[in-house]
Amino acid sequence: MNPTLLKKSAHLHGPVLIIGTGLLGASIGLGLRQRGIDVYLSDASPSAEAVATDIAAGSPLADAPADLAPELVVIGAPPDVCGSLVVEALRTYPRAVVTDVASVKTAVLDDVRAAAVDDDAVDVRRYLGSHPMAGRERSGAVAARAELFTSAPWVLCPHDDVDPHAYRTVTSLAVDLGGVVTTMEPAAHDEAVALVSHLPQVVSSLLASRLQDTPAASLSLAGQGLRDVTRIAASDPGLWVQILGANARHLVEPLEGMRADIDRLLHTLRAPTAPGARLDMAQLIAEGNAGQARIPGKHGGPAQQFAWLTVLVDDKPGQIALLLTEIGSLDVNLEDMRLGHSAGLPVGMVEIAVLPSKKQSLVDDLTGRGWKVVA
Amino acid sequence: MNPTLLKKSAHLHGPVLIIGTGLLGASIGLGLRQRGIDVYLSDASPSAEAVATDIAAGSPLADAPADLAPELVVIGAPPDVCGSLVVEALRTYPRAVVTDVASVKTAVLDDVRAAAVDDDAVDVRRYLGSHPMAGRERSGAVAARAELFTSAPWVLCPHDDVDPHAYRTVTSLAVDLGGVVTTMEPAAHDEAVALVSHLPQVVSSLLASRLQDTPAASLSLAGQGLRDVTRIAASDPGLWVQILGANARHLVEPLEGMRADIDRLLHTLRAPTAPGARLDMAQLIAEGNAGQARIPGKHGGPAQQFAWLTVLVDDKPGQIALLLTEIGSLDVNLEDMRLGHSAGLPVGMVEIAVLPSKKQSLVDDLTGRGWKVVA
To answer: Is ipTM > 0.85 here?
Structure first.
């Protein structure tokens, strides 16, 4: 099978059945409904299903015709139960394509293959796992939104036996919802997300957990650095237990690497004036520089260095808008933006990133219009 | 000495001598010059001094009158040389108050006390260390700005022998530059910044260094989580070597704590289906939740949960401005804001935080005006 030949997708026709109506499942329902596709919803939790129905992500499965033959079944359940729900869907709907959106892919495929050994109804050719890279710190249908997948990577993880029709159907789902389709082997996917998604979660949680007994006076010195590093530590333990458990094998190696680096650093910090200690510490920070510089920038393009400037504004309604209106009227595109968190005074600092070629004229123009700009 | 009695500060009169004209030293010079205070500058590096002079942060020390008697000497040098420069300033200017702005305080005070033992000219009563919590990823006078300290905590670290006049003078410096003055013992300060500033830097660098050999296809799956956790990994190795070296003793304990947690997690990940494994993983994430929730919010107030909503905008000049203009016209204050980084499509997602009481009406109003809002 040549994946490039299969990437052409038609639109989905439906109906689509979504089993598991959390954040991802309900968001998929909302997006498909907006495109006029019939969606049925089912969740092991009646209240979760009711919330998804209330926000118009689809109709309850109980209201579906008895001979419902979905074009596509989407399993929106967490990793623990995902495999068995895929198997059940393949059995129940013998003509449907089945996908899932769990953030770990090898374990689900293993479950399906294991069930297929003794049961011809579990037709692995109709299953294609996928993973839209679109999470939030909040979970559940209450946080769902049709645009959740817009412009985000949506990874398809084909196995050797996947049917071209299944490939086209799942591609259509991703494309219809605005995702950017990429393809990876399941194991390569799991290894990748261990490093770019699961390890950052672990690290953020480990750091934040150090703050449980920190005196409030110490925490009052916290700056944007600490806030950024710990933001995702607010994530849901229930979901992350399943993700970490399902991808445990790929997390061990990078985590062992980090532990070895910590051991090296501890050795250095215990004798910070010993020969070579300074070099060790500089190397740690420099290696971080090198890794950080490789992370791609906005819109999936190569990492790009923007030029930053800072503008002081009063922290009251309309000031930032006024500033951005001026910037827009100068025909400069805002590449990134950050609001400075200040302590105790009603002044905001707006840090603005623009293309380097635009910076100097923007500084001049804003200053000329009376803004307090620091380049 | 009762610190509360001493917090009343008069304005500085000057002249002020700044030794070490990097980011902090040059920013202090700029701020004081804007307030009409005479500033002289000196740096071991002639080019660093020249840059600071060029941006009008002060005049070269070589141009000062021979009988220069500064009211205040500010040492803006990194931790390594800070102590000896404080000692030298106390000797050279027998009537000046001397402060420094290094991010580690115990080591500097130790250096001064050691030098004072044999030399009456090293009058420790005239020295009061301080630490403005206002760094940037960029360093040097080129990144300096007069407003760097506005609304940021500025920690004074008094010792038992500090003179009330020195206390008032350094307080005046911090207040004149817009800082929010707080007071901490030097050791308590060093312990606090180890946890809220230095450990986050180490953790961010350790994580980012794992990405040095990651395939580009894997990195293309990076989301906002990874970007946030690794942002400060772009920091300057030269400066951080000195900070980590000077505060090594306070970093060992929290880093050992993290390593113990990693060992516990590795044990769990190697046998993720063993009894208790799930509980261990859930506990790690839940402890992170608890620590993260304790970090104070904007303006130094208690941690506050804002209500977030997301608006889809075209990624072209003026769109975000237009949106914020509408929000301002509805008299709603923007508490925080985040631009969504998307991959491959020219659509931006603006996440906006407002007071919870303002959210529903804002969603309704914006939707009514034609914006694509997801609450």
So the answer is: no
